[in-house]
Amino acid sequence: MSGRLFIQTLRWQRVRLIAVVLAGIGWGMLIPVFYGAFSGVMRDLANSGAIPRELMSFGSGSLFTLPGAITLGLQHPLAIAMLGVFAVGSSATAIAGERARGTLEVLLARPISRVTLYVSVLAAVLLAVLIVLAAILGGMMGGSALQGLTDELDLGQVPLVVLNGFGLWAAFTTFGLAMSVSFDRPGPAIGLSLAWLLIHYFLEILGSLWADAAWTQAYSLFHHFNPGEILTGGLDPLDLVIVCAAATVPLIYALLVFPKRDLAAPA
Predict the structure, then answer these.
(1) H or E segment at 58?
(2) Residue 265: band (very low, low, confident or very high) from pLDDT cuts 50, 70, 90
(3) Distances (CA, A) of 169 to 74, 112, 153, 215
(4) H or E stretch including 84?
């Protein structure tokens, strides 16, 4: 890995990273507030039968418990968008964007191999993803403490939440970077990376809202990251295996394809 390229990649992301981290902390702190304000109402509605319980959940999360609310907060479109800025946006444009601007050849003319380039960029983007994920979770833990709700969480399981969540978003990051090394323009790379994320998100939400389609959740990577279960001591080791495998396959693909790929003239 090239330390200089790693640092430079982070510098290019620093403004958006700071903005997203601040937004992530704020969003995370709101989740315990929402839980404290609406959990009782949600339970009353569910017990009354006025609204089906399935329609009162979102993905694998809900406002019935604080761990469920944390899951809901991390599967909410706002959290997905904040993490997707780097896992999809930055990864998909990293190599293809350089190629489209005609600067990739200049970069590769330096004493740096394609593998080193790929690994350096991947490490920088993954670090950005980890920082954003930690910011959101940190906001949630801080908000829970301010609301006096930490007794509802097993805080010793938080590192496992970070590990499982990082594995999930690493899967989308390596896929985005695999698409980036496969195309000479950022458009197709972004489109396919975003489509991959949305397919998994659709399967998770569809299965949670429609009982007859609950089987679709098993095919969604989002279903294999349930912080609510982890924070109550219910981590399934298979979930870690699945997200890590999903992150490893695109990584291997990129390491095999990028070094051998002919680079066409910039469009």
Answers:
(1) strand 57-58
(2) very low
(3) 11, 27, 23, 22
(4) helix 77-84
Position 141: which residue type?
M
Query: Which are the contacts of 79, defined by CB distance < 8 A and separation ≥ 6?
Result: 24, 27, 73, 136
Tokens 């959940």 found at: 57
Task: Give, for 62, the enclosing helix (H) or strand (E).
Answer: strand 61-62
Termini Cα distance of the chain: 29
- pTM (predicted TM-score): 0.88
* Residue 57, beta-bridge partner list: 62
Higher pLDDT, 37 or 46: 37
CB 243 within 8 A of CB 264: no
Q: Which residues contact 93 (CB under 8 A, 6 or more apart)?
A: 180, 186, 189, 190
Residue 109 has pLDDT above 90, yes or no: no
State phi, psi for 262 to the nearest 5 degrees. Answer: -75, 140
Distance between CA atoms of residues 122 and 220, nearest Å: 23
Give the position of tokens 């930490």.
Answer: 150
Rg, the chain, Cα only: 20
Give the C-alpha distances (Å, rounded to integers) separating 181 from 86, 188, 207. 16, 11, 33
DSSP at 90: I
Lowest mean pLDDT among 8-12, 27-31, 172-176: 8-12
